[in-house]
């Protein structure tokens, strides 16, 4: 699924927003892609949504190895506003 979706949700319902060809995002017709007024206009949309995938309440066992609580490879990660190579939940 990672190659086809931008968000995986586990044990929860999605927002219910339907994405369709007729959907518009910038106020009344005609739709606007002006970056200051829409979440889909460029470049503002890229600045708002830079993650390629989001994992929402996904169990640790189903996450990619780089995102799991354990960090056996010692990858530097940004956790709670600190760069660390420790496991999540480990005491420093």
UniProtKB/TrEMBL annotation:
InterPro entries in the cross-refs: Ald_DH_N
Domain of life: Bacteria
GO molecular function: oxidoreductase activity
Gene3D superfamilies in alphabetical order: Aldehyde Dehydrogenase, Chain A, domain 1
Name recorded for this polypeptide: Aldehyde dehydrogenase (NADP(+))
Species name: Stenotrophomonas nitritireducens
């Amino acid at each position: 699924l990672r190659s086809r979706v931008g968000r995986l949700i586990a044990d929860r319902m999605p927002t219910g927003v339907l994405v369709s060809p007729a959907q518009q995002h910038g106020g009344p017709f005609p739709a606007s892609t002006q970056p200051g007024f829409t979440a889909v206009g460029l470049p503002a949309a890229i600045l708002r949504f830079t993650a390629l995938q989001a994992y929402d309440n996904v169990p640790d066992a189903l996450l990619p190895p780089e995102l799991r609580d354990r960090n056996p490879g010692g990858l530097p990660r940004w956790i709670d506003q600190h760069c660390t190579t420790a496991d999540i939940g480990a005491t420093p």
